[in-house]
Amino acid sequence: MNYCYASKEIDREKAFQPIWSNELNEVFSDVAQYYDRANIFATLGLLNRLRDRFISTIDIQPNHKVLDVCAGTNVIGISLLKKQPELDVYAVDRSVAMQEVGRDRAQRHGFRIKAFICDVHHLPFPDNYFDVVTLQWATRHLRVIDVFSEINRVLKPGGHFHHCDMLRPANKLVEEFYYLYLKAIMGIIPRVFRSGPASLKCRNYFIDAIRMFYSTEELSALLSELGFSQISGHSVLGGTVGIHKARKPQLAAG
Length: 254
Fold this sequence. Notes:
Order of helices and strands: HHHHEHEHEEHEHHHHEE
Strand content: 15-25%
Helix content: 40-55%
Shape: globular
Number of helices: 11
Largest sheet: 7 strands, mixed
CATH superfamily: Vaccinia Virus protein VP39
Structural class: alpha/beta
Radius of gyration: 18 Å
Number of strands: 7
Oligomer: single chain
Number of domains: 1
């Protein structure tokens, strides 16, 4: 493992582990009922377009086993089932409240998603189990090396990992304007959606987590370090969002 990535992960964990362990569950319990509406608001209505772009990168076939990591309210699983109803979709998340919203949403669409509440750094599935794994809008709250390694483990050889998240813009000017926007929007959302104390307490964290996160290019390089191949990474909205696709290599013959 490249030293700079290992060192960065140590720094991220030192800075944020108390929040990751003790506060984020309360935050997501607080925001679960309005989480999707708040994200649409925060992205000025662009979230659905970003989601459609992400979904368009995912190649799925009937009976594929698909795992959605940090599935939240099951928006991605439902979108994939609309695209291919014969998928076998699994969801993992740490938040019971978010998954309760996701379960109800899937049922309203007539879909069944197999849900597991767990620590996503330790996925409760055997090796080489899934054809496709997705992860979106959550990686900045995780130990990236650990969770990406677990995703590699549960993917079948030749399977694909699809990732989308808010990233740190590579352009410094864009980066500073981005933080100003986030600071402003994080001041507005609690008033619009009447956020509770847990969410209010973590407003600065959500900006700091991006400051210490990766750019699109850095995340591509990290995926390569962890053994993924055929990696593509695309920056969206000036590098504030990155969409990645990577493949677990096939086993060598013989």
